[in-house]
TrEMBL record:
InterPro entries named among the record's database cross-references: Aminoglycoside_PTrfase, Kinase-like_dom_sf
The protein's name: Aminoglycoside phosphotransferase domain-containing protein
Domain Aminoglycoside phosphotransferase: 27-249
Superkingdom per UniProt: Bacteria
Stretches that traverse the bilayer: none
Organism: Streptomyces filipinensis
Length: 318
């Protein structure tokens, strides 16, 4: 979940000096997210200083796999990987365009979603769904988990079901305080998930929040960045469901926007509405504890709200 920097940079940031010593004297901090801090280096390159785990071999291969396809937008490419005092640093190509808009945690979205935003989302979803899932994508670990998502599984829905079980086992007691009948709702979600029909296995970004889609002056998507939070191979309906839910998470019209985008993606991309509801519940059940364990944390509060409203979790869909 990488966003343009809004917080002040550290009083003493050692990384510009590090990059200057390596031939990049103009390095400047331009963004930060869950995975790390990004610096512009000039000459069409950026560097990411990774927090926690750096990019394992599959991440670099995933970028290469994406680059083999003629997508209508650019995707990241890693040129070099270094390590400095135990911290991983990657040198990557600078992606074109500007963020489609800011994150809903920092600015309110208007009630009416702009047409060019919806068109951009459809273009990105169609583009990613055109890329077959690869072995490298299957080897990725999603945020908060301890093993590759597909490990031990041949079917995406079964891999997700195992992920839900692990995630709820981590801190389900904290979630149950805010979500009535958590165990029953989780069981209903898992039952519906494992009964979903097989679907094509394609590339999934997993975190298509507004800052991760760059557009040109005409509003066309020209780059998709910050893969890794929930990147994998799987059902493109999962990507559509998550995108509809996370596009506006915290604005005053967030529920309306999620419902509108869910209907749009079902209609334009042919995804069954019930499958989208299942995947939205799955996303909430697997990410609720990544940033906090009570409703003082915005993401935890959002996930709990998603579950309380979800039709599958609450048995309001057949």
């Amino acid at each position: 979940m990488e966003t343009p920097d809004r917080a002040a940079s550290p009083a003493v940031d050692p990384w510009p000096g590090y990059f200057a010593d390596r031939g990049h004297p103009g390095a400047r901090r331009i963004g930060a997210g869950v995975e790390g801090v990004v610096y512009a280096l000039g000459d069409g390159r950026v560097a990411k200083v990774w927090a926690g785990r750096g990019p394992a071999e599959p991440t670099r291969q995933v970028y290469a796999d994406l680059a083999q396809h003629r997508l209508p937008f650019a995707t990241p490419e890693i040129f070099e990987v270094q390590e400095h005092e135990g911290v991983v640093v990657t040198y990557e190509r600078e992606l074109p365009g500007v963020p489609l808009r800011g994150d809903s945690a920092h600015e309110d979205f208007p009630r009416e979603l702009p047409v060019h935003h919806k068109d951009a989302l459809l273009a990105v979803l169609r583009g990613l769904a055109s890329v077959p899932g690869t072995d490298a994508m299957r080897r990725l670990t999603v945020q908060g988990d301890d093993r590759p998502l597909w490990q031990g599984h041949d079917r995406f829905q079964d891999a997700l079901a195992a992920l839900v079980a692990r995630a709820v086992a981590r801190h389900g007691a904290a979630l149950a305080v805010h979500v009535p009948d958590l165990d029953a709702g989780t069981a209903r979600t898992l039952n519906a998930l494992t009964k979903l029909a097989d679907a094509p296995v394609t590339a999934i970004h997993g975190d298509l929040v507004p800052p991760n889609i760059h557009t040109d002056a005409a509003g066309r998507p020209v780059a998709v960045l910050d893969f890794g939070f929930c990147t994998t191979a799987g059902d493109p309906a999962f990507e559509a469901a998550v995108t509809a839910a996370v596009w506006d998470m915290y604005g005053p019209h967030a529920e309306e926007h999620t419902a509108e985008l869910t209907r749009l993606f079902a209609r334009e991309l042919g995804h069954p509405p019930a499958a989208l509801a299942v995947y939205q519940a799955v996303y909430a059940l697997t990410t609720y504890d990544l940033f906090g364990l009570d409703d003082g944390d915005g993401h935890f509060r959002w996930c709990a709200g998603q579950l309380r409203r979800n039709a599958v979790f609450n048995a309001r869909l057949p």
